[in-house]
Design a protein that fits this description.
- With 344 residues, this protein is of the alpha+beta class.
- The protein has three domains: 2-42 and 264-341, no CATH class; 46-72 and 221-256, no CATH class; 75-152 and 170-215, no CATH class.
- 35% of the residues lie in helices and 25% in strands.
- It contains seven helices and 17 strands.
- The protein has helices spanning 2-44, 161-165, 182-185, 253-256, 267-290, 295-313, 319-341, and strands at residues 50-55, 67-72, 75-78, 81-82, 87-88, 93-108, 111-119, 145-148, 151-154, 157-159, 171-173, 189-191, 194-196, 209-215, 221-228, 231-233, 245-248.
- Strands 1, 2, 3, 9, 10, 15, 16 and 17 form an eight-stranded mixed β-sheet that branches. Strands 6, 7, 8, 11, 12, 13 and 14 form a seven-stranded antiparallel β-sheet that branches.
- A hairpin with a 2-residue loop joins β12 (189-191) and β13.
- α1 (2-44) runs antiparallel to α5 (267-290).
- The longest helix is centred in the N-terminal third of the chain and has 43 residues, at 2-44.
- The two termini are 28 Å apart.
- 31% of the residues are buried.
């Protein structure tokens, strides 16, 4: 009786251990799958899950259509050109700022006073409370304008126009007066980082014009966009309405998109471990029932169980992952059928 009772307790313990191990395998694969699915669902709002290209990467086959994260310092291949002033600057984006020395109306409470200052648009003095003695010249003689480089690259990838315009930062670019066309060279002179029409730049007069240029500095940036051959462009179908991001420095995806959940780590290892746990649990259950080990049957049952659960979770998700788990389940089913059909 004691021996029979002892065997019953041992069998119960083995059944419990086996069931726990199999449930642990199922729980691990389910947790990993759910984490990946949540991450991909969140990433889809920004154009899709991004692959990591790293620093100054080169295009590779099979990348087309994916979102990607790229780090590097932009290289200007075709610099922007302000043809009006014949200014070339090695920058992704060049912005011409035009200002005119004009009267400005300043209101503080009920009081009104007037002062001369540099203004980047034409001040309509006809609307001043006291227009007499504060008449402005009228329209701006030259327009402010933006010039975008014809070709900007990071590593082997060309940046699309939207990504080039999104490159951050701004600093004054010193103009080259020697490059000015003859008609403008007669009117403008260099004063600091400005070209001015003032006879005395330190004492400008009403109607004087000054022109400056701002450039985007060449610095390390992180760019996220969609791969189109050897180009990185905006994902026009992204639910967030942008489909790209550009930030200074080497910035992780989770910092760029704070709404993304943390994706599960060691995905491949977790998947293998889930099958091993389920197989080990099946091995223990088989031993408890038959008192004879059958490793192949245990592997078949573990693969069948985990593959089926994972396949159900990936229905409607990534087709390649779904196909892989269905293959695991089918292989497990074939092994299980073969082992169970063998005569004992």
């Amino acid at each position: 009786m004691d021996l029979h009772k002892g065997l019953s307790v041992q069998t119960l313990a083995l059944n419990i251990i086996g069931a726990v191990l199999m449930l642990a395998g199922v729980a691990l694969v389910a947790t990993t799958a759910r984490g990946l699915l949540n991450y991909r669902e969140a990433a889809s709002r920004h154009g899709g899950e991004a692959i990591e290209l790293g620093r100054d990467a080169q295009p590779e086959a099979g990348q087309h259509g994916y979102m990607a994260r790229l780090v590097g310092t932009p290289k200007v291949v075709e610099a922007p050109h302000d043809s009006d002033f014949n200014q070339h600057v090695n920058t992704p984006v060049l912005v011409r700022q035009v200002e005119m020395f004009q009267w400005r109306e300043v209101r503080i409470g009920a009081s009104v006073h007037y002062e001369l200052d540099w203004v980047d648009h034409a001040e309509d003095s006809s609307h001043f409370k006291i227009p007499r003695g504060h008449a402005n010249p009228g329209s701006m003689p030259i327009e402010s304008k933006q010039f975008v480089a014809g070709l900007v690259q990071i590593g082997g990838f060309k940046l699309g126009p939207q990504l080039v315009r999104a490159l951050p930062g701004s600093q004054l670019a010193t103009p080259d007066p020697a490059s000015l066309p003859a008609n403008l060279a007669a009117s403008f002179s260099l004063h600091g980082d400005y070209l001015v029409t003032s006879a005395n730049p330190a004492d400008p007069r009403l109607g004087d014009v000054r022109v400056s240029w701002e450039e985007v500095p060449l610095q390390q940036v992180t760019v996220v966009g969609r791969l189109d051959g050897d180009r990185l462009v905006a994902a026009t179908d992204a639910a967030d309405g942008r489909g790209y991001r550009v930030q200074v420095g080497d910035v992780s995806l989770l910092d760029i998109f704070p709404d993304l959940p943390v994706p599960p780590e060691f995905v491949t290892s977790s998947r293998i471990l889930s099958v091993l746990l389920a197989s080990l649990g099946a091995f223990v259950l088989i031993f408890a029932k038959r008192r004879r080990p059958d490793p192949l049957l245990a592997v078949g049952l573990g693969g069948l169980l985990v593959g089926t659960v994972a396949g159900v979770l990936w229905l409607g998700g990534d087709g390649a992952t779904l196909g892989g788990w269905l293959a695991v389940a089918l292989l497990g089913l074939l092994i299980t059928g073969w082992r169970l059909s063998r005569p004992r």
